[in-house]
Amino acid sequence: MQDLLSQYHSVEPQKVKTWIKVGATSEFPENGGACIKYKTRQIAVFNFKRDSQWYACQNLCPHKLEMVLSRGMTGDSKGIPKVACPLHKKTFSLKDGSNLNGEDYKIAVYPVKIENEIVYIGFTD
Amino acid sequence: MKRVIVVGNGMVGYKFCEKLVTKPQREEYKVIVFGEEPSPAYDRVHLSEYFSGKSAEELLLAPKNWYSDNNIELRTSEMISGIDPENKKVTTYKNEDFEYDYLVLATGSSAFIPPIEGSHIPGVFVYRTTEDLDAIRTFASKLKPEGKNKAAVLGGGLLGLEAANAAKELGMKTSVVEFAPRLMPKQLDEPASKMLQSKIEDLGIHILTNKATIEITGKNAIEKMEFSDGTHLETNMLIISAGIRPRDEVAGNSGIEVGKRGGIKVNNKMQTSAKDVYAIGEAALYNDGIYGLVAPGYNMAEVAVEQITGGTKTMADHIDMSTKLKLIGTDVASFGDPFIENEEVTAINYENKQKGIYKRINVTKDGKKLLGGILIGDASDYNNLFQIYINGMKLPEHPEDLILGFREEGESAMGSVLDLPNTAQICSCESVSKGQICNSISSGECSSMEDIVKLTKASTGCGGCKPMITDLLNESLKSMGKEIKTNLCEHFEFSRQELYDLIKINKVRNFDEALNLFGKGHGCELCKPLLASIFASLNMETANQQVTIQDSNDRFLANIQRNGTYSVVPRVPGGEITPDKLMVIGHVAKKYDLYTKITGGQRIDLFGAELHQLPHIWRELIEGGFESGHAYGKSLRTVKSCVGSSWCRYGMHESVGFAIKIEERYKGLRSPHKLKGGVSGCIRECAEARGKDFGLIAVEGGWNLYVCGNGGATPRHGILLAEQLDDETCIKYLDRFLMYYIRTAAPLTRTAPWLDKLDGGIEYLKKVVIEDSLGIAEELEQDMQDLVNKYECEWKQAIEDPEMMKRFKHFVNSHDSDDNMAFVPMREQKMPKPWVK
Q1: Is pTM, for the whole model, over 0.80?
Q2: Using a CB-CB distance cutoff of 8 angstroms, which residues of chain A are in contact with residue B808?
Q3: Are residues B650 and B766 in the same domain?
């Protein structure tokens, strides 16, 4: 099961090698998340409509290793955009993947860019 | 830099590290911790939860990297075998030497094995570490296929009873063998012991008292325990829990002074007879006593840290052994001197065998002081009694009021938490006083529960003091003239009721608008579902309208399960279902390979549906005549019924018919928390209506209406609101009651705690609902009727609209389903693969 986790590493915007096209902006819910697939990875994509920001992170919950984060509720904590896992409501920063409840779990985050109403996620492979 | 070596990485050894790293002088010390067990320190107090599913990782007090992050060298699986106090060094079992400037012995204790012949035979265990528990579990699982299922526990103390419960949970027929004439002889008096015993026996655990074991026999594994009275007990395994012995052997062998009956002798600075060597926790012998509780152990850790870092703190002379815990589901508490009774002291007892409650308080003859007591079955008064005892506070005129409470009138003999002196210890685990908490509030440093926990660590141990801290916070803020913050979250500085009114008056249509008008930021997982609930309560808006503000279950109109699949619950009003409809459910379950189980609310739950399957499943259920059961929502769940007068020879009224009528009326109604109802056809109460938010019981001349009951973690019986009502009046009162609750309750508050907080309690509620004292009865009824008229099945709505259907797809960019999902077979059905521990 640990193999699952080892597939996900945060990607810094300047290190992106490939931008993968994952769909039209209209296919993603406003102020919520949806999931996309790239190779064997599942990536959750979030559309923060109020300030037109997009975020992406692993769909895998780091606590119980289930593919659910895209179905979590989004929001912010003191300005930091976040997602709450639907299983146990642990919350994670979508900026750096850190856990906002002060626990050890961490998630991988990925850069997102929007060009001509198309959503792209950045990967290093 | 000075080197501190800590021997032992149990709860107290860990606490020492935790306290040390917060000291400003922290940088002057290099800390090395030796632990004999392979795992870092874990929560031994909650060891039994390891059996009920908690993982070893979840029990850890801090993850492994906490030590490295805090610059502490943790060496697990390394035992210290010798101490050389002369040359200030310790030797490990691998013969490596480590020098120290300060040595802290937190070696804890081991299980005491009485000198009984045969105690080495396979199948005999102790109950102390997660490794012991693993061994017990493995052994029990090997017994079962051989048809052996008997377990015995030697020792009827606290830990013994925990062990017995664990054995029972493993499916073993369990007996407890106690040498004394009663259970927990050190903490409980005879009636208390008997009460506890009968509660435990009710759970199927057999108790033998007055039994001295003289021999354990068996060929390849244990078969029998022989007692001194000539009787015996056959058993296939035995867990010995006959007390603890301090781990003082290394200290003793190294010339450090130990007590005759064990324990490393320490003074009130936690210093042993050797220079710069300290002992803390269960290994330490202080004032001729060994203290097997966490709170004194933590105090010792703090004293040792203070002494080493140049502080002056010492250990109090008297160590309080008061304790409150849940033992096999029963509250057990004792404080002060639980037994004292003489010419100066009177004991006041309250015993209620029907409810399984026993309370005793020991009061001075003049009725002025509380000296100790025992609580069994209901320890909700423990915090207050303990504070009165420990602070020597004055008792009320009739001391018996302290244990006799008058719930219905909402009066308490205890007084307010503000009456406590500033020195009163509110959190004994972290030793935080009332003064500390109040000062942190009055200085402006803390203004929320979260702040207080962060600053003082109060309530992070057993958590029992949480309600008192909340009261302190609220009362202190109030006395400072500050409004008590009942804000929803950082995005809305309003209470639920304020927002409810604001949204209603300003005709706000959606979450974004509410955020623009009254809030800030993006919202969060607290305010979003709450506003969704308000929009639903005001306009009967279904979860399909503002999908992403719904709680994650409402968003997909199903209940998420352990592996990310969902369960599906169609509505079965009143629990009445035709064979044809049963077959529809059976057919759907079979087609989609769903695990099927009857729920507690008289319906059928279908588990294991993947996200993309939900609409297909619902299309078939709706064609078969079903509607959403709203099992996923904070909304009306079910109205449970007994079969009533149409079949039952005792039935007074037609309970099923009336339950269906009510469930049909309130279905889809969203509320601050879930709502459950029940209708019973006679006072035998087979529908358990008094355990529901609203319950009707048929009597001569109509229905008795009970409100504000619930099951769950804090079970409550509903309270009588009105008697002998006809159907019409009953529904009228229900409309008013439910709507009033929906308007005024705080978020996620069920009806029982809502009533507790309602000024004037049930009498006030009666005035509002029956006498219409607020003049809003008609409005409440009208609001409810509007909601009833607007009801729509949200699943039907969803499957008829392609836009709404979009959300039931696992991937945006692929038609694949989630390949991470795995099931394993279970009793002819299936379940999700267990989580990795």
Answers
A1: no
A2: none
A3: yes
